[in-house]
Amino acid sequence: MKSLLLALLVASSALSSVLPASAADVSQYVPLPTYRVGPYASSGELWWAGTRDYFRYINEVEGGIDGIKIDYEEFETEWSPDRTVEVYERVKAGKNGSPLAFFFTHGTPATYALLEKAAADKIPLIDPAGGKTESVDGTVFPYAFPLLFSYYSQASTGINYIASKVGGLDKLKGLKIATVYHDSAYGRATQPAVDLLAKTYGFENIQIPVADPNNEQSPQWRQIREAKPDWVFLRTWGVSTVVAIKTAQRFGFPSDKIIGDVWAGSESDVIPAGAAAIGYSALAPYPAGTDFEIHKRLKAEILDKGKSDLRDQKYFGAVNYNVGLVNAALAVEALRTGYAKFGKRPLNGEEGRWAFEHLTVDDARLEKIGFKGLLQPLNITATDHEGGGAARIQSWDGQKWVLQTDWIKADHALLRPLIEQGAQAYAKEHGITPRTPETETN
Amino acid sequence: MSDVEAPAVLDPAIRFTPRVLLAAAGLALLTAAPFLASEYWINAIVVPFLILSLAGLGLNLLTGYAGQMSLGAGAFMMVGAYATFAFQLRVPELPLPLALILAGVIAGATGLVFGIPSTRIKGFYLIVSTLAAQFFFEWLFLKFPWFYNGNSSATISLPGGLSIFGISAENPHGRYFLTLATVALLTILSFNLVRGQTGRNWMAIRDMDTAAAVIGVPIVRSKLEAFAVSSFILGIAGALWAFAYLGSASVQSFGLTRSYQILFIIIIGGLGTIRGAFYGAFFVSLLPLALDWLFQHLLGGQIDAGLLQNIQKAIFGLLIIGFLIREPEGLARLIGWKAAAPIRNPFSRSRTRR
Amino acid sequence: MNMFLETLIGGLLAGTMYSLVAIGFVLIYKASGVFNYAQGSLLLFAALTFVTLTDNGLPAIAAIAITIAILIATAIAIERFLLRPLTNRSPMTLFMATLGLAYVVEGVAQGIMGSQVRAIDLGIEDMPIFIGDILISQFDLTAAAVAITLVAVLALLFNRTRIGIQLRGVADDTRAALSIGIDINRIWQIVWAAAGLVGLVAGLLWGARQGVQFSLSLVVLKALPVLIIGGFTSIPGAIVGGLIVGAGESLAETYIGPFLGGGITPWFAYALALVFLFIRPAGLFGERQIERV
Question: Could you tell me if C250 lies within 8 Å of chain A, comparing CB atoms?
Fold first, then answer.
């Protein structure tokens, strides 16, 4: 036991000697807080595989981003915000001479926990389809990027899809729409938006919480059976989604009237539910499938050459794998934007913010990088840190996700005041003077 | 009953000059530490290590000294953090140290309430009471917006930042010294407590409660005292964890895994010793980092990351079992500078059935 | 009234799922006085092993046989490397050791077999059936039947076989059992293997409900209140405790939940257990008197 202690001491002192920099290396450091163990590992495993495969593809096939390689490194967090904070502290100074251009939080609670630290350290927090919704307003939250699809947009796109199903927004009047949500800040994040939408369109808004991890939801679904809603918006995470879909079937609620949000719409959520999940739909800012151009490239260059991080290739193209791909692509495109402006060298946090705030991914770009249909066109600005706000809808047919629609936009005009209101309140509470991007020089 | 102890055992610190020297050297090192170590080491390792030590200390008073099992350490830390937040938000005139103490008192009162079942039941049945606290507070602080001031992310962070009598401690050194001072004060307090009548009562109850009752130890009062004092310390540790380490916290920061972590700290460090909490926290905070580093450098790239993380988890479990089997008195025994024989530890005592 | 009945029946049936988990604890507690926190992890391990085997093309029967063999080997290893070195330690030490064991089992199981969610299809239809207006879940009915069968089998095992009688001897008085030459280590191995089997059954049923993944190991938290209410040493107690927790939770979420904002199930079972602890510390069916102060 003593020798073990000694080893530990040696290791810990060695740890401190890893940090020194060598300026010769010009790779961009990208740390990845991951969760390969713990309750959410089943989503995580594929996610990091997608991210790693794409980074590897960029490094080995494309020779880096304009010649600069990505130096990625994983840190286990078990989806615990505390451990993500620790990882952040470990990496925020950068590594091997590369400063930190941005930090993926890989989870909404971790983003919440880091929001103020990162703003003080001037390091952009990247949390696509997650994060704090108000931080879409980049004037108050310069260093938070809830890219792609904020929680308000999720609510709005969901409602827009229901409207398209029932024959128009005016037909929503009098409908009952129940939201079954994970009882946490993350789960409640859509509530203000749904509230507003219910008032605007005149549907009845029923909110039903399920506590984490909740593997027994009969009371909740019995409540739904009593209330007889027309549609259910499912905002669960992890095992509670599977249980919800199964319990819905048990209580005779039709699966094609349930719409899951982003984080309730992966293979891990439907495969264990078996036949009960057939017909279940979900919002897909990250559509599933292997028919996209990038998958052909990855298959040829990474998978077939045995370089993939996937343990089982049958998950190639799964939702969570594609989450990893898209997020990695967002990082790569932002860095590309930054290198074009600041020169070909690793970026720091402030430069990283500039890069993300000038990230534009149009159709031509999507074609070029092979993400057409997989990633929505994006235009991020200093005032809009979301940039997209659309999702496709996909349904589970028992074997695979089938895309039902093209990109459905959220109602940004309606939601924006709500976001600004929230951001202003935050600014007031924390004594932040919102910046005025129009007057900024760069 | 009052003069049972031999004074020599009571305060070995004064008798063994090498220890005094060591302590002085340690103190000097601690004061100089933030100027020697990098910001990363202070923020990500030293400060959480100190806070975890404090939490371990709190739990050790209850579990190690008074022999009451608890799986609810996280709950009492949570109460302390949320109470501090409430004081700082709603009574901004109250200086931070006072708010911390009051939050500790509230946590202590909470601990006392959840300790009431201990007056009727014993042993690990108590984990039910403490687990009830764990789940109840996780629910409570998430359910009612009042506790987090209606913030949309349901997280709490100090409105004015960390500041002591108007001086901002919102920097690595400030956080470090605030933590260090708090930990030092509470450690001294605990030392005195366990060496005094209270501590002797606790140990008497732990070792043989019937006998303790016979010689006139007030069982109910002592047990409740243990719960209250332990939760007081845990509460302050929780507030530090939230505001001096994380900066902002949510109920997830004090979940069940936190409670286990604190329990592991005292198992590994040594049940029923003050310094055990520090050894245990040292071990628990550095082991994952060390394993991480070792694996990445020895095996990096050869086995996949998922397997790596799971192996680490298994190793952690094995170490716990190993400690319980080989060294039930934990690291405190291994790294003992103790001259006097340790007080017999209940956890190495033979189990009596029936 | 219908709503009440439906909630009650649904809760009772869901409760048998908790009982299934709790039985594994009772077996081990009875024979070795250990509150085995790792039971949840063993349950995950058993179900994961089974799924991994069937996913690789093995027929279900063969997969079950191999899983059982692995569980027996695991039980022997646990007895040899954990229980035996810790003989005569306090129940708390043993409890903490099983916490460590849980980490080991989870790490090894997911390390080898991956953390992807797997589906189990037991072929149980899960369409609702109606008795009058009252909705009843077929799946839960099946689970209840399995639980009852399991209890019957265990009862036979305890009362009719030589090993069963030795086992009861150990549970009743360890020292006396030792003195008449019962091999207690052997008994422990058997009991842990049996608990593993019960874990397999529970794991398959829970797995069919929510998929085989890490969260399966968390059902251990549901079992503890069941044990407190039913008593740690009684299998019928585990069944009744499960029913009470299931029905209590279900009724509370429906009738009390709305006043408190809902989502109260995680702590409600514990509050219920606390109440029982005050009224009847040994549990409804507990034989051994819990030491009271």
Answer: yes
